[in-house]
């Protein structure tokens, strides 16, 4: 390989440039080498010395994914269907989600703030590749930690990278579990309801474009946002995370937000609107979580029923089907959807079941997949099986 095609950056990442193609980042120590073929360079992600289809960046994403799937074990497939619990960088010694470094609390370990915890090493080694990040010490710490995660993932199994994700980060309230990543050394903005108060989708889109770049700088590839529930009861304590009570405004704002997050333009675009500035949007909470009985919330058993006051179930779907699923940009639709913890009471017209939304064949298969043709990722809310704060999973 010609030396002028290789560039070292801070002794941590090696870049291999392809003429007319992508620059490949290699983490020293991962064990992944470079295959040269037809004057081009490719990562040998499974370290077998040959160019497999899933390693060939010239092929379509569909062809590469199909080839990768044929090489995966059941365990590896399962790892791509689970999320981690909440991860703070560095890990806290107490509180909701403590972590250890070689068996010691962070303060006693001597570890750098960007080092991987024992738990992170364990779930990455066991093929889990979706990680939820909460608080970070600084942008530098987040970026260095992401490099550590990706280096570990690249050197494990088939070299599948980690998908680091975050709840909303750009407001100042970090007091709630579903907003635990907010704040920090990034730009501060009004919460979602404040953006809706502008009545200007262009402002919301501009915010999302800025947020996507900051997410990528932090090593985050998926946003667990926007929250596009209709706010039908002011007693609901997640009211301020919505775009308000008007379904048409919420749809317009949802479309602008998702377009801003997901779309890469110009030299930053790789294909079909996706590129180096793109962040996956996971819209929530299907089929509308702002309709809890008495304004109570489904994080708690007292609020487990969504009752849709005024018999307006269809109204709650509008921000999804007319907004997040009908984008103006090339990416077409939000890449992921999160159902809520609620039981949408007496809404199953096919089976008559009153079960949690993530378990509802009618809401997910018949309505979301069937009637509305959504073929993206569906992710349960955190802990939708096995108790709160366990790992969520993807549903078919």
Defining key terms:
disordered N terminus, 7-stranded parallel β-sheet, single chain, globular, 396 residues, 10 helices
- Name the helix and strand elements from N-terminus to C-terminus, one letter apiece: EEEEEHHEHHEHEHHEHEEEEHEEHE
Structural class estimated from helices and strands: alpha/beta
**What count of helical segments does DSSP give?**
10
- Can you list the strand order of the major beta sheet? 6-7-8-9-12-14-16
Instruction: Please compute the radius of gyration using only Cα atoms.
Output: 21 Å
**Can you give the helix content as a percent range?**
25-40%
The biggest sheet, with number of strands, parallel, antiparallel or mixed sense and barrel status, is: 7 strands, parallel
The parts where pLDDT drops under 50 for at least 5 residues are: 1-11, 385-390
> What is the total tally of β strands?
16
Question: What portion of the residues fall into strands of 2 or more residues?
Answer: 15-25%
Average pLDDT level: 90
What would the principal axes of the Cα set say about the shape? globular
Please give the alpha-carbon distance between the first and last residues: 43 Å
Folded structure, characterized:
By secondary structure, this protein is of the alpha/beta class. It has helices spanning 61-71, 74-79, 106-109, 118-125, 139-154, 192-196, 201-217, 247-262, 313-324, 361-371, and strands spanning 6-9, 13-17, 23-26, 33-37, 40-44, 83-89, 130-136, 163-166, 222-223, 269-271, 274-275, 280-286, 305-306, 336-339, 343-344, 377-378. The strands form five sheets. It has a seven-stranded parallel beta sheet with strand order 6-7-8-9-12-14-16, with helices on one face. Strands 1-2-3 form a three-stranded antiparallel beta sheet, with no helix packed on it. A two-stranded antiparallel ribbon has the order 4-5. Strand 10 and strand 11 form a beta hairpin. Helix 8 runs parallel beside helix 9. The longest helix is centred in the middle third of the chain and has 17 residues, at 201-217. It is globular. 40% of the residues are buried. Residues 1-11 and 385-390 have low confidence and may be disordered.
